[in-house]
Amino acid sequence: MAAFDEAFPDQNPPWVAPMVTLRDVAIAMATSGRGAILVKSPLGPFSMVTARDVIEAVAAGVDPDLVWASDVARSAPPTVGCAWRASEIGAVMVRGRDEVVVVVDEGIPIALTSALDVLEAVLGRSEQNEQNEQNEQNEQNEQNEQNEEGGPGN
Description:
With 154 residues, this protein is of the alpha/beta class. It has helices at 2-7, 22-32, 51-59, 69-72, 86-96, 115-149; strands at residues 15-16, 36-39, 47-50, 79-81, 100-105, 108-114. The protein has a single domain (2-120), classed as CBS-domain (Roll), CATH 3.10.580.10. The chain has 6 helices and 6 strands, in the order H-E-H-E-E-H-H-E-H-E-E-H. It has a 3-stranded mixed β-sheet with strand order 1-2-3. A 3-stranded mixed β-sheet has the order 4-5-6.
């Protein structure tokens, strides 16, 4: 799980009960700073409501004070394993056109990961690789300069 821990440190997924209103779901999402929220289910697996689900429901004319989280929740949210690389998570998101996936460890949700989280992880690694290459190039240049200064004819 170390790779996941480093790439996605936010490992406290927000939850709501299935019988909270859509307005309360939106408030919980805003409070958590996440674009999705998990919905607890007393009868089985968890579900998820995303910001897109809330927007689509309101755009369709539902009253956010009369619609429950369970009414708009995705019953089978996309899940990924906690040991997966950011590129693997991103591939799942692209295939399913999902902006948020649930990260699970042995079937237990441990985090919500957004497309932005994946992008930041990939770009962070890319920037680190570029920095490492630059450091190696600088070391090579310094070595070349030292060789030229101490070489024949000096």
